[in-house]
Every structure is written in structure tokens, then in C-alpha cells.
Amino acid sequence: MDMLYSHIVTGRNCTSPDEFLCPSGRCIRRANVCDSQCDCAPAPTTSRGGSSGACADEMECKEYYTDVHGVRLCDSSSTLTCIVPGQNRDKDRCIHPQYLCDKTNDCQNGHYLSDEFGC
Q1: Which residues pair with 21 in a beta bridge?
Q2: Which of 14, 50, 51, 112 is deepest in the core (most CB within 10 A)?
Q3: Which residues of 58-73 are buried (b: 16+ CB within 10 A; e: fewer)?
Q4: Predicted confidence band of residue 9 (pLDDT cuts 50, 70, 90)
Q5: Is position 116 within any domain?
Q6: Consecutive H or E run containing 95
Q7: What is the four-CA torsion angle of 38, 57, 72, 98, rounded to 10 degrees?
Q8: What pLDDT is stored for residue 17 in this prediction?
Q9: Does a structural domain hold residue 42?
Q10: What are phi and psi of 48, to 5 degrees?
Q11: Judging by DSSP bridges, how do beta strands 71-74 and 65-68 pair with one another?
Q12: What is the pLDDT of residues 69-105, one digit of tens each?
């Protein structure tokens, strides 16, 4: 397999139990599932490659956040809100507790209020 496409897995599951398989075959970290940001490309719904706009890693997420007029509000009882300074609130991410202090900045916002702060 060409190294350029090494992140795409076809015909099998992802190599790590901490990964989620997108319909496209791409593997993403499970920390990025239900984080209020689309990490899987929307699945094609037509033979011409049209898309439904649905994002596979954000499909079953009602218990983690609520969408209010396009802004996703994290449920404070089940997730931590990562704020991206200087951005609209629609760029905020919801982080699940099991990914706090795991030595990976899942907030993806530099070091500003990282989920690794104070660990």
C-alpha cells in the first residue's frame, strides 16, 4: 500500500482498538467520535458521489451534545468543552472523560485550556 494512503484501511477493521472506522475506510481516533466536529468525510449516498451531509462519527451523539442553531453545546455531565480562542463557538470540541490526561491534546487548540492541563 502506498504510504500516502496508509491512513486508509480497506476491507478490514482499524489496527488499533482506540480507532473508529469511517465508511470511507479511513480510521480516526475514538476520542474524535461525538466530539461535535466531523472527522469522517460525509458518506456518499449516490453513485455519482453525492453526499447526504451526515457525518458518520457524529451520528449517534445526542447524549454528548445538543445542537442549538448550528452551535453544539457539550453535555457537562458526560463531556468537557474545549474552547478554541478567537473562533466561533461552532469550533468547540466535546471531550469524553476517558480521554482526559491521556498524553494527547484532544482539544486540538494548542495549549489553551488543553484536556492535558493539570495532569
Answers
A1: 27
A2: 14
A3: beebeebbeeeeeebe
A4: very low
A5: no
A6: strand 93-95
A7: -120
A8: 86
A9: yes
A10: -90, 5
A11: antiparallel
A12: 777 788 887 788 887 666 666 667 888 888 888 888 8
Residue pointed to by grid coordinates 494548542: 110
Alpha helices in the chain (DSSP H): none
Domain count along the chain: 1
Residue 56: domain span: 3-99
- Does residue 76 sit in helix, strand or coil? coil
Residue appearing with cell numbers 487548540: 109
Instruction: For residues 62 and 39, give the distance between their C-alpha atoms in angstroms, rounded to a whole number.
Output: 17
**pLDDT tens-place string over residues 28-72:** 988 889 888 888 876 555 555 545 556 888 888 888 888 887 777
pLDDT at 4: 38
113: left (phi over 0), alpha (psi -120 to 50) or beta: left
Cβ atoms within 10 Å of 32's Cβ, excluding its own: 20
Give the number of residues written for the chain: 119
